[in-house]
User: Fold these one by one.
Assistant:
Number 1:
Amino acid sequence: MSDQHDHESDHEPAHGHGHGHGHGRAEGGRGGIGAVLGRIGHAIAPHSHDTSDKTDSALEASDRGMRVLAVSFAVLMVTAAVQAVIVAASGSVALLGDTLHNFADALTAVPLAIAFSVGRRAADRRFTYGYGRAEDLAGIVIVLLITASAALAGYEAVRRLLDPQEIRAVGWVAAAAVIGFAGNEWVARYRIKVGKEIGSAALVADGLHARTDGFTSLAVLLGAGGAALGFPVVDPVVGLLITIAIGFVLRDAAREIYHRLMDAVDPALVDDAERILATVDGVRRVESVRLRWIGHALHAEVEILVDHDMSVVAAHKVAVEAEHRLIHDLPRLRAATVHTDPDGPDGADHHASLTAHRDP
């Protein structure tokens, strides 16, 4: 196994180091095309114990995500186009709001596709953690698109309340509502299923967004029913209700992106990591666990305490095993850096020179 760092002979016994699989030096005898492919593989999947398998898995996940986006984009654009034709023929504000929302939902595939594509690029000396954060930037674009669709739908609903107009082709409006629900529900199931399988929170969130759009499409049926019963005012009122529903989706999407940008994780993941580390032979105590999402991959930095009488080699072995356990047992974790500190002797402060430099 190759190591990330050279272990200098003047290291104190049992004082560990950051260690991350896949960032080490190429083994002797490995050169030419093999070395280049190896470096590319390590950059894409840094913790792999089998670089080629991990690289293939990462590329396959990105390819699946791109296929989902392409198919769902096509389905939603066709759905919205059909609805737009009926909007022009009927003048339904509720259906207009739903159509605008479906167009916006289809367009969210564009920034996500760009993010998946950019995220495949290997880490370099400027972007040392890679380009996975492109997914978070795509999330900001998605939030802006949802905001625009909500504002336009609300404007049209208020305008129609102030200037009521008769709705035509009520039956077609109802049919368009059903089409909108069917298209969104199919896309929602597809995005959520694949998003969970490849570990893309953004894709899962976009699938939940599509599901919400499906239910707002069903709300258009209320407007059509009101018009059929001689109450055309129901249509703009439903349009306002749809705008409010889009606002709730906007709130949830903005919160999700905010959490990602602030490196928030589910506390249960930290608990799981601590439990995994506690089962590793040689780990006396888990000092700290820090996790963050970079795109749809989870990264970890942990500090563990080991016996102060351990040799550097023995402490390194514990660190490697701790990293190995984390990568295999913590879902979606692709990179882990493990730092070992000596536990003892009593009264010893192995970080005394750093105390003044640490945050209070």
Number 2:
Amino acid sequence: MRRYSHWRRILAGGVLLLAVHAGWIQADELDKTKALYKRPSSIPFPVQNPYTPEKAALGKMLFFDPRFSRDQNLNCASCHNPSFGWEVPFAKAIGAAGAPLRRQSPTVLNRAWASHMFWDGRASSLEEQAKGPIESKAEMDIKLGDVVKRLSAVGDYRKAFNTAFPGEGITENNILKAIGTYERTLVSGTTPFDRWVEGNDSAISTSAKRGFVLFNGKARCNLCHSGWNFTDEKFHDIGTADDLDKGRFEITGKQEDLYAMKTPTLREVAHRSPYGHDGSLTTLDVVVQHYIQGGAPRPSRSPLMQPVPLTNEDVKDLVEFMKTLSSDSAAIAMPNLPVPQ
């Protein structure tokens, strides 16, 4: 412990030699690790739904339009609010008739790189994901066919669809394509961590740098929160107290998926409390404490969930690092929604 503390003091003095539980990280090894988290230079769009600015602009209008709910009181942003990391600051999202849903709403940020949507991965594309909440009785509670009728009564929407989808117009499929296109453009902003990865050594604090080493070393966070988006896009039972929600098991019926939920991105995590599929982890400190303890023991708990002996200072450093994964809040210009004429 004295040797570990000694090297922490050296790090504070600016020497690029970082201590972890298994040895030392030299400057070249640190650079290799940082490179694993470098942001991509472009957004991937599927061949079957390529990007066009007209389609994205239309999708943005649809995303914020309450005509997509039975009572015209909810839109996609009701659960995915840009002011809160494209989530909502509640343990559970609110659906039709003001009733809470069974899970916390996941962020829609960086979903262009995702292979599965929802906590349980039941949708394999953003187009499929968009349809789910619209037609869910508990959420927006309206059939897409009825949405088509509503939008078809609006002249400006007819024009917008004909521009985005020449010769096709307003169809259920085109509605989902437009929303999916817009959602793929929702990418987290450049963060202090990104600037550090790009070479600005003063972009994050010494505490956050120690946290990065812990994240990729003794704390073992990178085993699930990997890559530039800080998620392996896999499903794990992390031992939360909720034993009623069976997670991905409800989709696959496989025992290995019992209580398993998709690893969430850590991008914009400082803006997205509370945490966990059930919103039971109220702060980042509570999240780290949950992992230190290893979660509730049960047969399905991921073997990656092991108690981790971290000090209070380690916890502080990890939280400081995770805060560097959030960008400055940026105002989102709301679209002008067409009205019937």
Number 3:
Amino acid sequence: MSDASDDAALPGSRVPLRELPKISLHDHLDGGLRPQTILELADAIGFEAPAPDAAALGAWFAAQSDSGSLVEYLRTFDVTLAVMQTAEGLTRVAREFVEDLHADGVIYGEIRWAPEQHLTRGLSLDAAVEAVQHGIDEAVDAVDAAGGFIRAGQLVSAMRQNDRGREIAELALRHRGHGVVGFDTAGPEAGFPPSRNRAAFDLLASEWMPVTIHAGEADGLDSIRSALLDGRALRLGHGVRIAEDVEISDGEAGLEVTMGPLAQWVRDRGIALETSPSSNLQTGAIAQWGSTMGDHPFDLLYQLGFRVTVNTDNRLMSATTLTRELALLADAFGYDITDVEAFQLNAAEVAFLPLEDREELVERIGAGFGR
């Protein structure tokens, strides 16, 4: 698939890639708005959007995000967050978010967002979570009524720089069983290690709440180490810089691969890497390896047996879908239907769901991929 087309079929299949069942584990609510929705919500609250129409606004987000800097990339969220400060806005955005996942073939999505960023117009933390869940439920019910299938859960994120981790952990626990399936920390990674929120992680561990942590994106091995030791993370948000602990050298029999103890631990324990290929290029997460998709360490990690998953991170900012991310990887590394199925099975097996629900996802993936 030389053009990385969303509607093409991969080698080994006649089913368009978009129609295959997929799992989305790393997808930010405030990074997945429809441009038209931003304009309409902005108009309702008197906020001036940076572009006058949906096409121009989508292009603005893509251009602003392609900076090579995570800090600059994150500034685009000032616009999306501005229109997500009311219950009505949050509900609409969440509903459309799930609708768009379903249209892309996603059968299970974990939607991460930071409620503490949505309080400027009077919402409480709990009301914000409830508003998002209302939108999720509306979309899931509509898909079910139309004969389709999708399930979704919230990942409540604490912004690591704000030192509200314990408070947000308590929020996540209050809504456990009512839509929240796990906890995350997000925001600027360098300078804000997971150890900074150790009290939150201690609480979550005592209550057996699963945790994923942004680590190995804008910072290196120390950040990953802290995510595992201080955060007890079951998954790594992005995690691509674990490849810094992998050494490739010329040996007598050809290339030799040596893994450090951290990489060995992550691989051998099946700790999932929530990679987001286009985003990783945009933010400079893989800059030390190159600047094209073919330079991404994804394939190296996959071939070495790491539990890699494929995600979008922020569909609006990266002008992407999960289908497109899979197509880009297949185009760069020659993957076929078997490889793409493996990525979905990896994701299903580490979803923050009970075993029975994960087994159902595995069955649906198998059926959809023709096994």
